[in-house]
Predict the structure.
Amino acid sequence: MAQTEKKGGLLRKSSASKKPLKEKVVLMYDEIFTTEDPSKCNPRFWEELFLMKVNLEYLEGKLEALDGEELMKIKDNINCLFQHCIQALGEEHPIRVVNALQVQC
């Protein structure tokens, strides 16, 4: 059985027969970095996001890789991310609060 790899949000390396597996939280981050509203297809998107362990390495890498033009294209999603972080801080669920704080940092 192949050894799993967690670097860069991948759970396993790609091979000829299999696509690389990504963590669910990484897939959700990728949705935020598109021009579409991530909660359009999944109304519980933000609730689910803050229940998952934050992958800071991947999130920071995605943000640092953006140039000004790309950032402006996804500005609404980035603003929405931080708006939902702030809302999550007021929740009683401690995991959501901690994860929202980590994303904000």
